[in-house]
Amino acid sequence: MHMRFAILAALFLALPAFAHPPVSVVFDSRGNAYYSDLEQVWQVAPGGAKRVAVPNVHTHELYMDAQDNLFGEHLWYEGEAIDKWGYYVWRRDANGRITKVIRNREGFRTDYSFVRDRAGNMYFAKEKSVIRRTPVGRDEVLASSGLREIRWMTVTPEGTLFFLDQHDLMRITPDKRITRVAKNLAHVSPLRPYVETRHAVQGVWTDRAGNVYVADAANAQVKRVTPNGVVSVVSESTPPWSPSGGGVDRNGMLWVLEFSPLNQVRVRRAGAVR
Q1: Domain of 234?
Q2: What CATH number should be reported for the domain holding residue 241?
Q3: Angle CA 129–133–139, to nearest 5
Q4: Among 274, 159, 163, which Cα is nearest to 224's?
Q5: Cα separation of 50 and 25, whole Å?
């Protein structure tokens, strides 16, 4: 068995450089699912039919509002000669029309977030602080001490924020009460040496019952964390796949977004959550 691990590790180390995978699966009011494969955004109909919804965009996150407007970005690299990054933010409306919300800019997106609640507040990290930006543009600091490395976030419609502080799951209520809900949700595995410690835990999302789901990419598991901090495994990915994100649809079906060391991306239905 140890020899098998060594052979797998040698093969993975010889693969091309690994790109950080997408983390979002979102749903519209008609039951369509949307996800990115970093080259385009796909729409999956309730019956399983699949088509490109937004072509030629490199986006890791998606957001769907109550009017079925889908938001994402396009991020690009200009090349080593000038070593510059650029991005724009787009919106696809319920009729499929795509427009730019933020036009082309140099650098990375730091003042606009796809983590939003029903009231229109945006949430994002700035260094080691968690910020809530109101619809009128006022920034409120929700947490600014005791955090090590803020990673992916999600927020409920009512405004309860969940985020990863390294490998720990944190919760901030609308009245700014912060709780460390679960600790050490992942560790690196010799079976997936291409998943670095920093990216061992990736996407995070919720269901209507108040449970939180995290993608343990290093160990190929989706873990569910109850409001009381009880952790269980609800889905496992088969080699060479690992989970990077997901979502729970209106019928309680768990969708898991997966990636491979060859930079492939797929989405699958993993069964009803209970």
Answers
A1: 132-274
A2: 2.120.10.30
A3: 65
A4: 274
A5: 14
Would 272 be classed as within a structural domain?
yes
Distances (CA, A) of 187 to 11, 25, 191, 207: 21, 24, 12, 25
Say if 43 falls within a structural domain.
Answer: no
- Sequence-separated (6 or more) residues with CB below 8 Å from residue 45: 31, 32
- Distance CA(45)–CA(169), nearest Å, equals 32
- pLDDT, tens only, 238-256: 988 999 999 999 999 999 9
Q: What is the pLDDT of residue 127?
A: 85
**Coarse DSSP helix, strand, coil percentages of the chain, rounded to the nearest 5 percent:** 5, 45, 50
Question: What distance in Å separates the CA atoms of residue 83 and residue 67, rounded to the nearest whole number?
Answer: 38
Beta strands in 186-274 (DSSP E): 201-206, 212-216, 221-225, 231-236, 242-248, 253-259, 265-272
Proportion of the chain above pLDDT 90, given as a percent: 76
Q: Find, among 208, 236, 213, 216, the residue nearest to 224 by Cα.
A: 213
Instruction: Name 24's Cβ contacts closer than 8 Å, sequence gap at least 6.
Output: 34, 35, 36, 60, 61, 62, 63, 114, 203, 245, 247, 257
User: Is 215 within 8 Å of 222 (Cβ atoms)?
Assistant: yes
Question: Following CA atoms 88, 92, 98, 102 in sequence, which dihedral angle do they give, to the nearest 10 degrees?
Answer: -30
In a domain, 33, yes or no: no
Is residue 259 included in any domain, yes or no?
Answer: yes
The confidence score (pLDDT) of residue 80 equals 75
At a CB cut-off of 8 Å and minimum separation 6, what does 1 contact? Answer: none
Residue 138 has pLDDT above 50, yes or no: yes
18 phi, psi to nearest 5 deg: -85, 130
Residues facing residue 272 across a β-bridge = 253
How many domains are contained in the chain? 1
